[in-house]
Amino acid sequence: MFMTAILRIAPNLGDISQAPIAAAKLLQGQPNTTTAHQFTNSQNNFHCGVWSSDAGKWTLNYTEDEFCYIIDGEAMITDRNGREERLAKGDAFVVPAGFTGTWETIKTVQKFYAIYEKAE
Fold first, then answer.
1. Does any domain span residue 12?
2. If DSSP states are collapsed to H, E and C, what string results for 47-86?
3. Which of the residues 81, 97, 108, 120 has the least number of beta carbons within 10 Å of its own beta carbon?
4. Domain count, the chain
5. Domain that holds residue 52
6. CATH number at residue 75
7. For residue range 9-48, what is the model confidence (pLDDT) as tens digits?
8. Is the pLDDT of residue 2 over 60?
């Protein structure tokens, strides 16, 4: 589908799905996530929307590049070398492809996301 107008990205729009974090990744708690997916490009390698989770901690293994902007809440990302980044409302950041580590939602977090996956 070719779009000729801008598309606003906002919480509670788009295709909304809920799911727990996969047991194989889970380190702490029993967090559930909500994704309000709002756009995928025609090459199926760029996606954006709004994502949220409640408290918990799990492993990350990124194969894609992701830009995030924290709308609300607080989280901690720790890389494989133990470097921690505390993230809160108003923080913008990129997680590059190849990143491994952990994500911990400290206070229910909500973020805008834009994901780019290398075309295969």
1. no
2. EEEEEEECCEEEEEECCCEEEEEEEEEEEEEEECCCCEEE
3. 120
4. 1
5. 41-116
6. 2.60.120.10
7. 888 888 899 999 999 999 999 999 999 999 999 899 999 9
8. no
